[in-house]
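Schema walk-through. Below, the input block comes first and the output block second. Nothing else is stored per chain. Lengths vary across the set, and this one has 69 residues.
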Amino acid sequence: MHWTRILGIGLLVGGIILLLMGYNATGSVGEELHREFTGRYTDETRWYLIAGGVLTVVGLLLAVFGIRR
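--- output ---
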């Protein structure tokens, strides 16, 4: 297995973990109150979701395609 596929799998797993952390944070009481009064999630929750999404996509692309020579 090439190192880019291993890196891709690691990024994919890390991205899924961040997405799950962000998703769990959206259901917390503090997050619900913040969203109720401001109409948006906190910066920390948004960064978890954004970073998790980006890492998941990049990891999936690297794991599936890798770097072709």
